[in-house]
Amino acid sequence: MTAIATTPAQTTGKVARSTNGAHGHKARPAAPSGAKAVKVTKTKVPKQAKAFATAVETTTRQVAEGRDLLVPLEQLVLSEANVRRVFHAEGIEELAALIDSQGLLQRLAVVAHAEGSYAVVAGGRRLRAMQRLVAQGRWEASRPVECKLYDNERAAEVSLAENSGREAMHPADEMEAFRKLVEDGLTVAQVAGRFGVTPITVERRLKLARLAPRFLALYRAEEIDPDQLQALALTEDHAAQEAVWDGLPTYDRDAYSIRRALTEESCRGDSRLARFVGIEAYEARGGTVRRDLFAEEGDGSGVFLDDAVMLQVLAMEKLRAAGEDVRAEGWGWVDCLLDGDDLALRSYGREAKGEREPTPEEAQSIAAMEAERDELDAAYERNEHADRDTEAYEAEEQRLMGLIDALDERIDAAHDALAQWTPAQMARSGALLRIDHGGQITVDRGLIRAEDRTAANEGQGGGDSGPGLVPSDAPKKRPAISEKLMRDLTAHRTGAIQAALVQNPHVALVTLVHRLAETVFSHYGCGNDVVKVHLTMTSDYALAQDATDYESSPAGALLDRATTEWGDRLPGNPEALFGWLLAQDRDTLLDLLAFCTARSFNAVAGRERGADQSDAITEALGVDMADWWVPTAASYLGAVSKAKALEAVKEATGVDDTAAVAGMKKDEAIQHCAAKLEGSRWLPAPLRRLPVSAPASEADES
């Protein structure tokens, strides 16, 4: 491209011209009195000079006001004078698609840069979008771009002017624009491609654009929010939309209430029956489905099955087919229930599962293991009477416990292999098939109907195990941690979780609602009943009975402070409490709810446990017991063997200190281990967080 030639006149914007008189004539001075008038001759200005002056003036004005020109894309760079400093990369792809399909609708504002290039002072996002098209191979780098050239002195002014005073398009206008394009013949895919968005985004815009005009008007007036619009879009029936909106009180027109009103006679796609039958199978039988385009994909929560009766019929057909396979096992009867509620089991008795007669080889193996178990028990008892302050005692204790545990597992496995129902038991009992909340079949075998219980009891021979049944005398496993220490540790854990709940009203609310739901909907099970909603107070005094030095612990101090603060805030007269609560704001009520729920929590246990609800609560709170408890001689080390204390040191530091404490008495060894564990954040097994699985969440695209 040819660069614009410049002259000093163009640069300064000044043109030599007459400044006296409207027509460019120099004024004549008055002649002195008595002087003779002199004739002045008029000089003509050449036409070439006039043309040059006009050209200079025009060029100067164009540079100041902007001059149109075409510049190859590869000769454009972003100017440092561009006032926009923040660019959102996610919008460039959409803008590139728009420019590719619609062309550059607004010129770039540029100033002269280095030789042969121009700097963009307004239109940086457009420049980046076009450069993206070049990088993708959709445009040539030499493609000419429409620009407007400005004087360098106006760069910042022009950039600020273009980026100021803008008003973004209202989403409702965009929705209706998308609808117009589709009505004019474009497909959803074509609209998505031209505007650089996904097809689902276009479908969502169209869904909202087809709402009753009344709601788009409310949206423009900011009297309804996007979530409410999305809920109304569950139906395309304008009358139904307006009926639901008008039928709900103004304070209850949230998205949840709208969605519930529109789908109250439908079944959600993530319900247990829908999961069991399958949406595809339901649709294949002619069932109608509504899909919420704004719901998360994959979990079925945005799918609504309109024919609940058909869904139940299909579920029962599938359940009965599975029941035939169970009947083939030899049961006297098989029942099928669509309800997965455990309450259904209360009307049944249960046949006790016995053991078949072992084969001679199995009997010999079990007898040998039980004889070995007796010998180990005797050895353990003998060791208990030895000097406990010696290393020999502790080493022998650990060795024997390891052998006993391993042997117990083998004995249990041998008896499990013998456990079964006899043919007579199966003939008089049956199986119940239910659908659980995950949409899976649950089979309860060995159930006895009420009318069959008498016969079953007679068949048991008044408590005799009956033919082929052998009672199991397998010894119980010795716990790795004593009951006293277990209660000590779990009391500290209870206090820490209480303290964390006090500080987290949201998780406290979830905990309380979960416990209430367990009670009302008993098919969820009762868990470990760690939250006593009725309300059983788990006081500091109760915890201090089990937890060593509880009063001085971080949890004890925090809970004592919170108890004092709430005691000062609440009215002293019980009759005034309800009125006081009515006068409080929601945040205050939630804080008090958190405190009360926390004080009902109780996970104190005397034996080892598996994962339970307390682990889910701990995970939600992010409780790390290392913040609330430390291993000391009083809290742990003095209550376990020297070997256990050394095991803790090895876990915490990676160093085996057995040799270091070889010549020490137990008290000295405990102090040595306590020093090694200081600051290590080591925790014994009962205080460690057990893994808890949680559902994944996917952000909704709108």
Automatic annotation (TrEMBL):
<keyword id="KW-0175">Coiled coil</keyword>
<dbReference type="InterPro" id="IPR003115">
    <property type="entry name" value="ParB_N"/>
</dbReference>
<feature type="coiled-coil region">
    <location>
        <begin position="366"/>
        <end position="396"/>
    </location>
</feature>
<protein>
    <submittedName>
        <fullName>Chromosome partitioning protein ParB</fullName>
    </submittedName>
</protein>
<dbReference type="InterPro" id="IPR036086">
    <property type="entry name" value="ParB/Sulfiredoxin_sf"/>
</dbReference>
<dbReference type="GO" id="GO:0007059">
    <property type="term" value="P:chromosome segregation"/>
</dbReference>
<feature type="region of interest" description="Disordered">
    <location>
        <begin position="1"/>
        <end position="37"/>
    </location>
</feature>
<dbReference type="Pfam" id="PF02195">
    <property type="entry name" value="ParB_N"/>
</dbReference>
<feature type="compositionally biased region" description="Polar residues">
    <location>
        <begin position="1"/>
        <end position="21"/>
    </location>
</feature>
<feature type="region of interest" description="Disordered">
    <location>
        <begin position="454"/>
        <end position="476"/>
    </location>
</feature>
<dbReference type="GO" id="GO:0005694">
    <property type="term" value="C:chromosome"/>
</dbReference>
<feature type="domain" description="ParB-like N-terminal">
    <location>
        <begin position="69"/>
        <end position="164"/>
    </location>
</feature>
<dbReference type="InterPro" id="IPR050336">
    <property type="entry name" value="Chromosome_partition/occlusion"/>
</dbReference>
